[in-house]
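Bug #77: duplicate submission created two jobs. Keeping one. Sequence:
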Amino acid sequence: MGLAHNLNDRYTYADIEKWPENERWELIDGVAYNMTPPPARIHQKISGELFFWIRNYLQGKTCEVYNAPFGVWFVEKEQDTPNANNYVEPDIVVVCDKNKLTDKGCVGSPDMIIEVLSPSTAAKDMNKKMNLYEQNGVKEYWVVHPTDKTIMVFHLIDGKYNKPTTYSPEYDEESIIKVGIFENLTINLKEIFNE
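Kept job's structure:
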């Protein structure tokens, strides 16, 4: 995942909308990050498994889950999206306030975000995105390490992410994660990381 131009250049969503249609970009504090090429197969498999578990649980409930590419603009109103300098396409997004959903994606903070790391995205997902999500009040943030077969879970407490809890099917007998924003959703990591 490369940088557009250089770190001193700043862009808005209106700028990246004009760039070639076959390219996907994210913006963090106005810095553009190229989302091409697509992620590896194992990344997609794990993301798909997590989406499946959450989607099944949410059947008939108020919250909705989306998988990439799904746009999230960290602005107050839809009309502010062209000027947004923070726009991301997380691997999985859970939104419980339907007023935040538009035809294009989510305007405002989702309730939960999951990022599945790739070698080229790991530093950005662990630092820049984590800070962005924390500052914008994303209640729960999961960072999935496909090669290590671990998931780090961050919960927002008093506006800050707590020290993460790390789960792994190789080290935890039960290998079960309880999704914090839901009353009774648990996910079995052995099935998520099963090859």
